[in-house]
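Retro notes, item 3 of 5
We never archived the inputs for the adenosine-5'-triphosphate complex last cycle. Fixing that now. Sequence and ligand:
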Amino acid sequence: MAPPLQPVRGTRDLIGEDAARHAHVLETARRVTALYGFNEWQTPIFEDTKVFSRTLGETSDVVTKEMYTFEDRGGDSVTLRPEGTAGVCRALITAGLTQTLPQKVFYAGPMFRYERPQKGRYRQFHQIGVELLGPATPLADAEVIAAGWQILNDLGIAASVELHINTLGDTESRNNYRAALVAYFSEHAESLSAESKTRLEKNPLRILDSKDEGDQKLVAHAPLIHDHLSQAAAEFYNGLKSTLTAFGVPFTENPRIVRGLDYYNHTAFEFVTTALGAQGTVLAGGRYDGLVEQMGGPSVPGVGWAAGIERLSMLIAAPEILHRPAAIIPMNEEYHGTALNILKSLRDIGIAAEIAYAGNAKKRLERANKSGAKFAVLVGEDIKLKNLADGSQQDVLFSDLPGLLRS
Ligand code: ATP
Ligand code: MG
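Structure as it came back at the time:
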């Protein structure tokens, strides 16, 4: 016999409780984002490679080493999406919606990054995310963050996460800050990792996000953006903080939050937990006012976040196991037809019911007991409703069945 086929490294199947956790996160996110007025969009899971390479930044981890990029049979370079924002912005332009603003977008689906698989880090993982396109006011940033906060709250994990916020400033602030960073890191260039030496030339801010230990020691004493903010950027940041307070969202200011992708400005934030080891960021995002323009569209400001469903799934309590549909059991072959009628009638009025594919009444009852069904309907001369939780049994009229099964 051939050896059994294996899943690709870094991918996983969602079965049983894993599937239930995933579904619970997704349902919660859909419900909460709808409360905030977001609409769900679906974009393709692969795009022209340029959608990502032009926007995420040529020195970002994702572009330099994590993308699943390949040539298709027609010779075009395509990439499995590593994140959702670039695709949503591309879709905004494609659909001609850049003048129809604001657009409040929710999305969910698989993302792909070639990373070293470990707990909470996979090569195919899943994200939920929102993008608020159009308004360039701190109210938009605060609303997006509040929606994320409410999702974590409704998932029951708000107590184990902390919101860290920071500002990356506007262009003027960034230019001032960049000069200060270049001066500082150039002085310590010999202690920088090879990668960060390149970043020093191309994008010094990226060094702040380095995972290299030597770099991190230097970063601890690097200049802070807050000393280089323009007045407009400082006002924006103050507006964000007061609106978060108005929405009742608790936060901590953390000047070390810089996002890993190039397109961010002003607001950057992360919800972090200590419960997942090194994979502590569960939901993260920020403002990206230049992105749509970078993709060939007009200037459309935007702010959003994404969260890993796998990391959220690990933090939540096991979702309630749902009862299996009621088991319809003919007492013998003679009642098979009546059982099918009852099965169909119940399903027609929205009551979950199923029938075993084979076996005698005793076998079927045993199976129903094991399956986690709450009720069995025994179909013979009379109809009996058996409560599988306590074993009690009563004669019922067919017309009373729906009410009893719904109870
Ligand atoms: P990290 O620093 O952990 O690599 P990141 O900055 O690359 O995270 P983002 O690009 O901001 O992550 O993605 C948003 C969220 O998606 C993360 O906070 C995390 O929950 C999730 N995520 C990112 N990469 C992975 C992965 N490889 N496997 C599982 N979840 C992931
Ligand atoms: Mg990463």
